[in-house]
Amino acid sequence: MPLPEFTRRLVEITLTKYCVQKVPPHVRDKIRFGYRIRGNHVTLITERPRFDKPSEWVDSVVAQFRFNPADRKWSLYCADRNSRWHLYTLITPRADFEALLDEVDRDPTGIFYG
Predict the structure, then answer these.
(1) Does pLDDT of 1 surpass 80?
(2) Hey, how many other C-beta atoms are within 10 angstroms of the C-beta on 112?
């Protein structure tokens, strides 16, 4: 089931702003942030040029946010080294998407940005 249109638009605005502000202009040729929306899942990614082909960019997952339409709350997931998703239990599901994004940005355990 896709995100409700209003919710999707708010997430797009929030993440677009986050991705632009996260990387200083002078290093945007070395790293950039982005996101993908698929159904009720929103995945935050980083992109870097390939080592052997700098003209091609490869992405790495950072975090995933999952929307539950039943209670209208978001849950936060982290990836293991095999890019399998696991519920991040240090913050409870909540309606405030930005609170979860702030948790990713703070990264108190080092699980999102290492």
Answers:
(1) no
(2) 19
Q: Please state the pTM of the whole predicted model.
A: 0.93
CA atoms 77, 13, 98, 17: torsion sign:
positive
Whether 73 maps to a domain, the answer reads yes
Residue 33 bridge partners (DSSP): 46
How far is residue 111 from each of residues 11, 56, 66, 98, measured CA to CA in Å?
Answer: 22, 26, 17, 18
Would residue 84 count as lying in a domain? yes
How is residue 75 annotated by DSSP? E
60: containing domain: 5-106
CA–CA distance, 20 with 72 (Å, rounded to integer): 27
